[in-house]
Amino acid sequence: MGEKGVFDDILAGSDTFKYYSEGEWKVSSSGKSVPIINPTTRKIQFKVQACTQEEVNKVMESAKSAQKLWAKTPLWKRAELLHKAAAILKDHKKPIADCLVKEIAKAAKDAATEVVRSGDLVSYCAEEGVRVLGEGKFLVSDSFPGNERTKYCLTSKIPLGIVLAIPPFNYPVNLSVSKIAPALIAGNSLVLKPPTQGAVSALHMIHCFHLAGFPKGVISCVTGKGSEIGDFLTKHPGVNCISFTGGDTGIAISKKAGMIPLQMELGGKDACIILEDADLDLASSSIVKGGFSYSGQRCTAVKVVLVMNSIADSLVKKVNEKLGKLTVGPPENDCDITPVVTESSANFIEGLVMDAKNKGATFCQEYKRKDNLIWPLLIDNVKPDMRIAWEEPFGPVLPVIRISSVEEGIRHCNASNFGLQGCIFTKDINKAILISDAMETGTVQINSAPARGPDHFPFQGLKDSGIGSQGVTNSINMMTKIKSTVINLPTPSYTMG
Predict the structure, then answer these.
(1) Domains of the chain, start order
(2) For a FRET experiment, which of 234, 365, 422, 463 has its CA 20 to 30 Å from that of 71?
(3) Mind listing the pLDDT tens digit for each residue in 275-320?
């Protein structure tokens, strides 16, 4: 069977895709679809189903009944199916990567890497789940004062029920599987609501899970307008856990969601603090990679550089030299800088750039934009009254703030309402640890750009950057509850024996 034939079932037309419910690919009764605009051509590339609230209710019903049986499926069998899905995903990386190129303008090589990384994550999660969930705990009562050894407590981890997964546009495959795999290995059923840009890549990925042979109803994927099914899904009484990655919407979801566990990874304004003793070649390379890969559209991108005055000129010069070597153009050509995801995103970035210009910042390159494509731009001498000092551009523009002390850098970092990641460049490990301790961020990288991976590392944000912690093990634990069974024994008779 050729690559194309494998994905024929998910098509409802030449460019329109079905949604996935009860183990089948379906066309919505709404008769409507949602267009997906190619960021490079700015034309409609694909269409997905505009599911109705009634269809969401049916998905929830089947997810609930399927979950009861899935939770009774032996752990090794759940792991086996996940390994199978991972292998199928990697076997079909090309058509999925092609969708990522067309939907979110991700460079072809990075798109293929995302699919392979996703397969690896699913396999790792299957292995880790067998270990984490295969162990219980045994407690005895006489370890607490005043008690005899009359109670044995056995604890194990049980699934929560239905997990609602909402990934973002920038990693629609990888940040879907990072929610799907932990949910499934833990015995939950999973409902995926992919982002509009990235929905078709996610539907292809879901088909790989379908081909692996998961029971009907254990996995579902609904597409549609946020206004029609977004709030309806997040407030649905059938949902027992929400795992969300994205922007401000997450704060609104957390306020509306009921008394259920939330895993939220929201925005970031990841600060890069550069000390006088830093290796400037390493720092400048990390700033270009951290700030400009995937055109800066990453929550863990370097979003503000805080550099000591005495080395600022040298650092800026080195960064500019490296920026001059970046290729700019369409994702099909594997360019370093590709179009940002939507016109509104490009307009927002331009607003931040113009505000900085009007307030006297120094532009290291000429600001250049064509449609959704924005050329890389380093903005020097940024001051705290400029929007770009605080707001998250999600594009290939990076502000530099010159500081006269480390304390000033820490103060700026901590004044942000975000606290996802940060990084420090110095050769003094003692200073690095002390600054890391002082930074109010979920993760601090020493002598490297921020990054989410490896995917088994804990990943979390403070303040408006999120709730809970991700990473394979943390996600598995978060998608389970502790269940205790207590065996009550008669009072011991010390004459026995």
Answers:
(1) 3-266+466-482 (3.40.605.10), 271-446 (3.40.309.10)
(2) 234
(3) 999 999 999 999 999 999 999 999 999 999 999 999 999 999 999 9
